[in-house]
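Final report, closing paragraph on structural work. Over the funding period we assembled a curated collection of sequence-structure pairs, and we close with a single example.
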Amino acid sequence: MSRKPKNYREVEKGIHTDLKDRLTYGRYLHLDDILDAQHCLSDQHDEMLFIIIHQASELWLKLAGHEVEAAIRNVRDNDFRHAFKVIARVKLILMQLTQSWSILSTMTPVDYLKFRDTLGPASGFQSYCYRKLEFLLGNKNSKLIEVHRHDAQVYAELQRVLEEPSLYDVVLRRLSDVGFAIDQDKLERDFSEPYEANESVQDAWFAIYSDPEKYFELYELAEKLVDIEDAFQGWRFKHMYTVQRIIGNRQGTGGSSGVPFLKKAIETSFFPELFAIRTDL
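Its predicted structure, as stored:
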């Protein structure tokens, strides 16, 4: 009787091995489709890395949008417990996305330039999942969906999210519902327009932060929103820095100025009053 190696692990008898005509891991996840979706346009080794990083990012962005939509419903329904859960998840998703830039940074400028021209006008600026997430969080700009006009289904979905209240909009409605004097033009407005900071909103948050025991759920909600912005800005910065590291100040493939364009995004806040009150506390 031969001795088995010390690191040998016996396959347990209860493990299913006859999977003909049964649901399998691969079928459930449609792995044939996912793992066959990497089609390089060049023979350069690092193009596979480039494709997979961006495909995986789109999946995480899709999930983040899914969770923010749930948070919007939760806040409307006054279900703060579940809202806290999904918002915390969004923060961790954004942290995961930030880490992915470090993996992409292992591709040198020389490696990228070997296949960059094959991308044509394709660019992350055209990411539907990213744009939807930004709109859900409140960074609205109707001009940003024009690059999707060629895809009727995507364009219609982005138009819908553009025109509906963002997460911050429904939070401000909740502040009004519980008695805070939020200016009406912040509650009944064209939600497709960018949000502008407002004194009545800042006063409400100041009152909440000044008495967190009395307004604990709203106080906790505010900090969860700050968590999202903190993580999102970290992702934006790492994105900008990775692009700068790989292409310097070259123009983006989608026609933008590249790094200067990405730097402007870092100056944009989803929840401006939540940061402004920190000076006044």
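The chain has a mean pLDDT of 94. The chain is about 60% helix and 0% strand. We thank the funder for supporting this effort.
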